[in-house]
Amino acid sequence: MAEVSSSDYTKGHWSAPPAQGSQALSWLVRDGPEYEERKKRSQFVPPSVSIKDVHAAVPRHLFERNTAKGLFYVARTVGLSVFFYKFATQIDEFSWSTAVALGLGPTGRWLISWSFWILFWFWQSVAFAGFWTLGHECGHESVSPYGSLNHVIGICLHTFLLTPYFAWRATHRTHHKGANNLARDETYHPMTRKTLKLPGAAHATKMDYKDLIEETPLYTLFKLFVRQFLGFQLYLVHNRKGNPKYPPGTSHYKPSSKLFKPQDKNYIIISDIAIGCMLLNLAVWIYQIGFHAVWSLYFVPWLWAHNWLVMFTYLQHSDPTVPYYREKSWTFARGALATVDRPVFGWIGVFFWNNIAHHHVAHHFFVTIPFYNLERVTEAIKPVLGDSYCYDSTPTFYALWRSFTQCTFIEDEGDVVFFKNQRGEALRDCPAPQAGKEGEDEAFKLAGL
């Protein structure tokens, strides 16, 4: 099989390498060369990179936010979504005229209709996920230097997808201030040996792991389906997979939730009112044209959009080769480097999802830098990051399956820990972690938090 350089992937111009015979699709289920290289470095040494050095490597003009340019990207994504919607409203007519032109009967017309609907659902879900990523950029105030404009756009885009903008923004900010810090991080909190009720590592047997955590492939697929399509909304409603330090009943919709600071209360109420208005609009729409139509035009692409956003956000930090830190060893830079850049869906991820997966490491170092500058930021900081920079060209769906099946739990003790699989095995270890020394306040300031 011909080799493909990592630069081909990082630029988002990757295409499947040539192959012959039974190996024609083997590249779809193969670990990327960067992942294989990290596996070889099984003895992990926590990075000593300073955010000052990273900050100094970035040209100042890349920090500038351009309102006109930001609005262009918003208008482009919204415009394409409107185009897809208009296409969907004409599917019945398209199907009929196409079937007549081809001399097809009812079965042929049915097949053409379903083909058009699948085409619409895919592209509209991609556009909806683009809404969410642009709302994410607004939450970081990187679309425009004007905070109010960012928030108006952000609440419109996120509310349309039933995401409470200000509530999500508050917890997402906390995530950036404590990425992969087990005491502080907000999302995709890993299970531990204790929560799974496993025996201690020194005493656990293969049968213990098999009896307590091994799953059938069918059950794993069911769990993956629930997590992908419903997981984000369940997290918003009752903190599913969120930090377990919060009490039962924690929700992004409760202004009094421990997720928020007292000064956030009015903003959370505004988010709730906006979500209520969106639900009312959907109810009126259903009353006017029927549930089946709204299901096809809105809810199906909405569900698939959730699948995409859960996919790329999960893969940004959940990987068998990426560490989690406890307070003693964590620094802001180490948390930012516990992030993986991936060429998710190639040009689609660049064009529609605004580099949210392609250049997420750079985003964690500098949250207010506009997404359209992140590729150049990544290239500027890579020499400073060296081997600490994590990139993975593993095909996206295989990487998702790999992380979901191998990132099972972590140990309850240890300053630096890695995911273990269903057999209690970890790919990497950190025998002698170094305590973190970086000042947090200065790091947050340089990052734009």
From TrEMBL:
Single GO BP term: lipid metabolic process
Which stretches are transmembrane? 114-134, 146-168, 267-287, 293-315
Cited PANTHER family: OMEGA-6 FATTY ACID DESATURASE, CHLOROPLASTIC
- Does this UniProt record's set of keywords contain Transmembrane helix? yes
InterPro entries, per database record: FA_desaturase_dom (IPR005804), Fatty_acid_desaturase (IPR012171)
Protein name, UniProt field = Fatty acid desaturase domain-containing protein
**Keywords assigned by UniProt, alphabetized:** Membrane, Transmembrane, Transmembrane helix
Gene Ontology molecular function, alphabetical = oxidoreductase activity
Residues forming the Fatty acid desaturase domain are: 116-390
User: Is Protease given among the entry's keywords?
Assistant: no
The species is Ganoderma sinense ZZ0214-1
Q: Superkingdom, according to UniProt?
A: Eukaryota
